[in-house]
Fold this sequence. Notes:
By secondary structure, the protein is of the alpha/beta class. The chain is built from 16 helices and 18 strands. The chain has helices at about 20-35, 50-60, 80-85, 110-125, 140-160, 180-185, 195-205, 210-225, 235-250, 265-270, 275-285, 295-310, 325-330, 365-370, 435-445, 460-470; strands at about 10-15, 40, 65-70, 90-95, 135, 160-165, 190-195, 255-260, 290, 310-320, 340-345, 360-365, 380-390, 390-400, 405-415, 425-430, 450-455, 475. α2 runs parallel beside α3 and α5 (about 140-160) crosses α16 (about 460-470). The radius of gyration is 25 Å and the shape is globular. The N and C termini lie far apart (about 50 Å). The model has no long low-confidence stretch (mean pLDDT about 95).
Amino acid sequence: MENIPEVKLGIIAVSRDCFPIGLSIARREAIVKAYNCPCLYECKITVENELDMLKAVEDVKAAGCNALAVFLGNFGPETPETLIAQKFDGPVMYFAAAEGDGDLINGRGDAYCGVLNCSYNLGMRHLKAYIPEYPVYTAEEAAKEMKKFVPIARAIIGIKNLKIITFGPRPQDFFACNAPIKGLYELGVEIEENSELDLLVSYKAHAGDARIPEVCEDMKKEMGEGKFFPDLLERMAQFELTLLDWAENHKGARKYVAFADKCWPAFPEQFGFEPCYVNSRLAARGIPVSCEVDIYGALSEYIGSCISQDAVTLLDINNSVPASLYEKEIKGKFDYALTDTFMGFHCGNTPSCKMCADRAVKYQLIQHRLLEPAGSEPDFTRGTLEGDIAASDITFYRLQCDSEGQLRSYIAEGEVLPVATGSFGGIGVFAIKEMGRFYRHVLIQKRYPHHGAVAFGHYGAQLFEVFKYFGLCDIAYNQPKSLPYCTENPFEL
């Protein structure tokens, strides 16, 4: 995967000066041994005071660390340990040592108590930090929790170094994809907004680019014989190079890029193809390209790529599963009610690696109806990547800024079922427990748009921690029947 951070994790131990410093050092060394990976940098400066703190932070910076684990081997010095988070430019995890060897006189560290004061001081200084669910560990437990922190840190680093590049205003009938950009700045995300004309000018400037034949060959290899339109390859390759060059030339002070592009109705007629397949190829490389200028969709996709280190997609929460299909293919075979299921669809932006073997570059049926003469063969509405999405565990989620400028999110884990859809586009039968209630009392009640990001695997825990780190108080999920939503009527109508 390109375009996502590599995490270099360091560990710093702290020690309160009225406790034995050797306790923190020995416990830190035990954690490093249990972590058992040269990718972890062990800072040998144990922090007891502010000058130690400055030296330790400089040490981990010099070692190339961009994420930190601060370990309270004993009670810990409240001010120096929290100033680490202030002085270090990257995500910081705080955790403490569990008492272990039975010596509760000279071997007692009181770090259980120290985490409380550490948390209080972080709050007083308005510092963000990651504190796990139960942050008091043995060496082996600490090593496991630090490894769980890595994908969370990767997403935090990515967000803080991300620029979202847009082309064009939202389509007229997709107001739901428009949202205040205020939330982007609160997260530390930069945005660059451009017109479709800017993109068209750059595309035309790439005509005859010497790299086009190589990209065409790569497209042929990816899709396989008979799964693409030969006459479209050069145009699509030219567009892919246009986006990649724009990203490189416009990222500016940022390290990572995502796109949110206006893909209809003017695009296909002016460019001569639909952009979906090219968008899917970039997403497979860790460069999301969201449809319909959905900036928070692009951001959501990017976060999923950072966490999973895998391709993601953006889909419409599109249509219900027909009762006849449910009765024939799902009921009795899978533990889901009809209302737990729905179809996730988009024109063709899902990476080919996440689709069934019969996927192919086709044409956009809806756009063909709208833009090309009735009864004609598809021409410029070709370029979508269509087929059923392959069976997989998934996480359906979104980070959104609402109409009042407040950031909120939802997360729901489920799966794509191995059930043929019999429909068009890039589409799959999705199943999420209690989806019907989630649909009504989260998606509708909280006015989320129709786009949801999809990560291929269960990543709800990591997403939750990332959203929590950035201060989101409203992180919705598909609640079980035993836990009603606040807007759920307890009485039968």
